[in-house]
Design brief:
UDP N-Acetylglucosamine Acyltransferase, domain 1, 26 strands
């Protein structure tokens, strides 16, 4: 199916502002007052909620949810199944200034934008902020109001300002319980995870 045909199968509310060059996958819904900028690419079955913003050239996978007033600045990349909570901000400038040292208004070409990368299945809680250039690992969970200033490992639960790991979560998003030394278990699904050298991975059955 072509990109044009996919877009015909997307649902876009009349008050949303979607640039003609943006690509929307089949089944994607764009709600009131959302803005999707030029050359952004969204996969299938995404939800872009009221007032959310997707910057130019941002790449978003399938089944991604952007809740109300989430701000995803370019050149961010979100993989499949990512959840971005209300009023989350993914920034793109480590040294923000409105003007340069001569007092001239800065334009996009005047700095090197660094996008945030959010890996498969990760979730960002309401009002959290991710600093430019950070990577959020697979199935990680960022607590509401956290400020992420460094990369977050797969399955990590991080909270605070700056965000620090306070535990582990599994695929279900539930905090894991320690089952044994170096072993963790999801209380909801029973799935096992192994920890080694500060990293976690699922134990294949």
């Amino acid at each position: 199916m072509t990109a044009e045909a996919d877009r015909q199968h997307a649902q876009i509310q009349p008050t949303a502002d979607v640039d003609d060059s943006a690509v929307l996958g089949a089944g994607t819904m764009v709600w009131h007052l959302a803005q999707i900028r030029e050359n952004a690419r969204l996969g299938s079955d995404c939800i872009v909620s009221r007032g959310a913003y997707v910057g130019p050239g941002v790449i978003i996978g399938d089944k991604v949810k952007l809740q109300n007033y989430a701000l995803v600045y370019e050149p961010a990349r979100l993989e499949d199944g990512v959840f971005v909570g209300p009023a989350v901000v993914l920034t793109n400038d480590l040294f923000p200034r409105s003007v340069d040292v001569s007092g001239r208004l800065k334009r996009p070409a005047d700095w090197d934008a660094r996008g945030v990368v959010v890996r498969e299945g990760a979730s960002l809680g309401a009002c959290s902020v991710v600093v430019a250039g950070c990577l959020i690992g697979r199935w990680a969970l960022v607590a509401a109001g956290a400020v992420v200033t460094r990369d977050v490992p797969d399955f990590a639960l991080v909270a605070g300002t700056p965000a620090r790991r306070i535990g582990w979560v599994g695929h279900a998003g539930v905090r894991l319980n320690r089952a044994a030394e170096g072993r963790w278990q999801c209380p909801q699904t029973g799935r096992q995870y192994a920890e080694q050298a500060g990293l976690l991975q699922a134990v294949e059955a």
